[in-house]
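Thread title: Can someone regenerate the structure for this chain?

I was given the following input by a collaborator and told the matching structure tokens would be attached. They weren't. Posting the sequence so someone can regenerate them.
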Amino acid sequence: MSQTQMLLSWDEYQKNICNGLSELQQHGDFVDMTLAADGHHVKVHQLVMSMASPYIRALITSVNCPHPVIFLNSTYTLEKCLWIETNWPKSLQLGRHYILKALEECSNQIHQKQRIQAQ
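Best answer:
Regenerated them for you:
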């Protein structure tokens, strides 16, 4: 005797999850990590940051700490992380200035890695 099966689905699942994570961060609920730069700090979720950045994920997994504090090299980087936390995975429109600054930052990091490897 076969039983009838029904499909249960959650309309707009992705939108609800993303909005929920953003709302939790904005209210400071369940935050478990702090990002800091140039005297500023923001509390974020390790889960969201680790999905957005393999570098931050490696830092989180390398320490046994319930609420790590990660110091970033600039407030610009801190602002990017805050945007990821509050808007992920929505799209983003940036002005030319921000794109050039991001490219410059990436270029600097590549040059630093090359210098380290050359030593």
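The two ends are 72 Å apart (CA to CA).
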